[in-house]
Amino acid sequence: KAGVTQTPRYLIKTRGQQVTLSCSPISGHRSVSWYQQTPGQGLQFLFEYFSETQRNKGNFPGRFSGRQFSNSRSEMNVSTLELGDSALYLCASSLEGSGANVLTFGAGSRLTVL
Amino acid sequence: LAKTTQPISMDSYEGQEVNITCSHNNIATNDYITWYQQFPSQGPRFIIQGYKTKVTNEVASLFIPADRKSSTLSLPRVSLSDTAVYYCLVGATSGTYKYIFGTGTRLKVLA
C-alpha cells in the first residue's frame, strides 16, 4: 500500500516568488491536512480538505492557500514568499479527518527561501 | 478544542522504561488520544491511540485514567533509535476538526 507522497522534496526559492507543493494521499483517504514545521514554532496546522472542500484553516495569512482535487490529491500554494516561510511543509491524509482517524504523514517538502 | 501540555524534553538511558505524560484538561467526551513519533526531517508517524483505560501494542502502552484529563505514553526498554520528538493529539470522532499539535516532548536516549 503506497504511503503519502509529497513533491518536491526540496526546493529553493527567492523572496517574492510563489511555490506550489503537491500531496498524494493514501488510496481511499479523503481528508488531507497541511502543516508548517519550523524549529521555533513546531508543527503548525495550515488547513484541512475533505472532498474538495476546505473544512478548517489555521492562523496563517492569505498568502497560504490550498485546494483538493476529485481524486483527493491536494496542493498548497504560498505566494509572495518571505524568508520566514522557510520550513518543512508536511501533509497528512486520513480516512475522514476526524479526531479518531490516524494521520499518515508524508516525508515533507523542505522549502528554503533566500 | 482540547489543548495539550507535555514536558519539553526528557533524557533516559538505553534499556529503561520511559513514561511521557500529556495533560488535556478540557478533553471532550468524544475525543480520542493519539500519540505520534517524529524523527528529524521526517513526518510524524502513528504510535498508539486510545479512548480510556489502557491500550497496548507492539511498541508502546497508553494509560488513560478515569477522568481522561491526562494520558501517559509508556515506552518499554528504550533504545538509541527511540530518540525522537513525541506528540500527543486529542480530537473528536466527528465534526470539523483542527489538528493542533502541542510542543511535543523531545526524548533523548543515552547509551
Class by alpha and beta content of chain B? mainly beta
Which range best describes the helical content of chain A: under 10%, 10-25%, 25-40%, 40-55%, 55-70% or over 70%? under 10%
Please summarize the sheet with the most strands of chain B: 5 strands, mixed
- Mean of all residue-level pLDDT scores of chain B: 90
User: In what range is the share of β-strand residues of chain B?
Assistant: over 45%
Q: Which two chains share the most extensive interface? A: A-B, 26 and 29 residues
Number of helices of chain B: 0
Low-confidence stretches of chain B: none
List keywords for this structure.
heterodimer; A: seven-stranded mixed β-sheet; 53% strand; B: 111 residues; mainly beta
Can you characterise this structure?
- The complex is a heterodimer of chains A (114) and B (111).
- The mean pLDDT of chain A is 93.
- Chain A is globular and about 35 Å long.
- By secondary structure, chain A is mostly beta strands.
- Chain A contains no helices and 11 strands.
- Helices cover 0% and strands 53% of the residues of chain A.
- In chain A, strands 2, 4, 5, 6, 9, 10 and 11 form a 7-stranded mixed beta sheet that branches.
- With 111 residues, chain B is an all-beta fold.
- Helix content of chain B is 0%, strand content 49%.
- Chain B is built from no helices and 9 strands.
- In chain B, strands 1-9-8-3-4 form a 5-stranded mixed beta sheet, with no helix packed on it. A 4-stranded antiparallel beta sheet of chain B has the order 2-7-6-5, with no helix packed on it.
- In chain B, a hairpin with a 6-residue loop joins strand 3 (31-38) and strand 4 (45-50).
- The chains are: A mainly beta (114), B mainly beta (111).
- At the A-B interface, strand 5, strand 9 and strand 10 of A face strand 3, strand 4 and strand 8 of B.
